[in-house]
Amino acid sequence: xxxxxxxxxxxxxxxxxxxxxxxxxxxxxxxxxxxxxxxxxxxxxxxxxxxxxxxxxxxxxxxxxxxxxxxxxxxxxxxxxxxxxxxxxxxxxxxxxxxxxxxxxxxxxxxxxxxxxxxxxxxxxxxxxxxxxxxxxxxxxxxxxxxxxxxxxxxxxxxxxxxxxxxxxxxxxxxxxxxxxxxxxxxxxxxxxxxxxxxxxxxxxxxxxxxxxxxxxxxxxxxxxxxxxxxxxxxxxxxxxxxxxxxxxxxxxxxxxxxxxxxxxxxxxxxxxxxxxxxxxxxxxxxxxxxxxxxxxxxxxxxxxxxxxxxxxxxxxxxxxxxxxxxxxxxxxxxxxxxxxxxxxxxxxxxxxxxxxxxxxxxxxxxxxxxxxxxxxxxxxxxxxxxxxxxxxxxxxxxxxxxx
Length: 404
Prior knowledge:
With 404 residues, this protein is an alpha+beta fold. It contains ten helices and twelve strands.
């Protein structure tokens, strides 16, 4: 691996992993409460939802959101509801995340504060968050299958395919153990830099707005791991290393990013919020990097690749499940849910179906396994189809060459 590539990789790992360690330490207070949404200095309709997270070492008794007019002439208090993990309609345990529906009596500038009371009577209050309220203000909620959803998906598809064929064209040059186009290395260098700058900027932003949590923000999900290791795959000059990483990151990256793009989980951060752009940029870059590698990186998939990824994923899930359980020992005292191994997401997902069929975690992992086999199989299909098309066209191309 060349010097510039090594610098990019080391710098990326240090910035991203270092920031995650720092945020985990900064948030490791015994008691705390934060407002996550809405972001400060935004204009909202008179009815909106406030969300955040809270934790108390003794346990939580209640959470309230205080709404105060900036001039101090009026205030109201609203109870918050904690997110619950359920199994067949029965509550199993409460999470640190909470939400409250707010109804503002008049337009103007208002301050939001959230407070939590522990079982032992202790209290904690969040920092104030200022919002502007105007009746009829446009809703910022992200809406699936509208232009703000479909347009970026179309742009991602076009850019991924276009850059893939761009990286394939040009004079051939030696790149470690294989030959690639002269355009390949400059392009993947740019991709790697943008991938990691975007991820680092998002980590900083998510921490500053109160959304970062060790429970959900570590780079332990499929897309997060893909972002970490895509540059290593793109820059590796050893064929075996490239192929192994491509096997893993093709299924993890494209599979995870594709499902995320189909059902974006960005809540009240629709166009033109920063999280909206960062979300589509990061998942689009994952898909683009995998497509560039597939078209121009000298790799391919075989049945052995499919088997290798399935075995590696299952072995990898063992320590991830252990990490999920260990995270519950530190603030905000929730178990982690990386790879959806801990519990069905409170917002609802296909994991609820698996939980009903097979039982609560870890038994519903059987359903995740079956879904993984189906998704991996679908993602693998283009490769044997492409090989058959190429084999069918080979005699025709050979005949054309002979006649010429």
